[in-house]
Amino acid sequence: MDLRLDDAELAQLFQRLDVSEEWTLGFFVALVTGPEPIEAEVWLPYVAGSDKFGDDATAEANLGTLAKLFQAVSFQIRHDVGDVTPEPDDERAVKEYCRGFVRGAKLHKRWLADEMGVATLRIMNALAGDADEPSDPEWKSSITDRVGALFAHFHPKPKPVTVEKRIGRNDPCPCGSGKKYKKCCGKNEA
Q1: What sign does the dihedral 139-140-145-150 (CA atoms) show?
Q2: Could you give the CA distance from residue 2 to residue 13 in angstroms, rounded to a whole number?
Q3: Among 52, 89, 121, 155, which residue is least crowded by beta carbons within 10 Å?
Q4: Residue closest to 67 by CA, chosen among 41, 91, 90, 103
Q5: Which residue has the higher pLDDT, 28 or 135?
Q6: Is residue 190 scored above 80 in pLDDT?
Q7: How far apart, in whole angstroms, are the C-alpha atoms of residue 182 and residue 169?
């Protein structure tokens, strides 16, 4: 699948939607970051609503663009999370992004039972302006780091498997005796 999106595709898509590009980006980032996969049938109504895409040809094109955007976010968060987070000085973008992020995060059941997940959600909720507590000015500049850390928390890289080199029968014995392994420590192995 070609993940490149052009401005015309995105403009056509967001003309039909009730949510902004920033909200959708935050929503998709939360879906990808969370601890378990969320099926498109679950999240699509939050983005597309009902029958937002028009006729069949337009609907198919817009759904394709939406799928490409989701896949692009999924790819990019693994490679450069800064490309899928808002600029901290763009107040409107940060607010919309965080609103989408919070909505997407709430679709994850395990997220709400995770200490780091809840802490991040509290901060994003405050940045979205939907919390009783005011947001700390430093939080806006830490969105990229927080999202990256949360993704790493929920999706840890597998530890490399190390295989110890097997001692051959004719190799020198590792005990340091100078004898062949088969004549020393390996004498009793069958």
Answers
A1: positive
A2: 17
A3: 89
A4: 41
A5: 28
A6: no
A7: 5
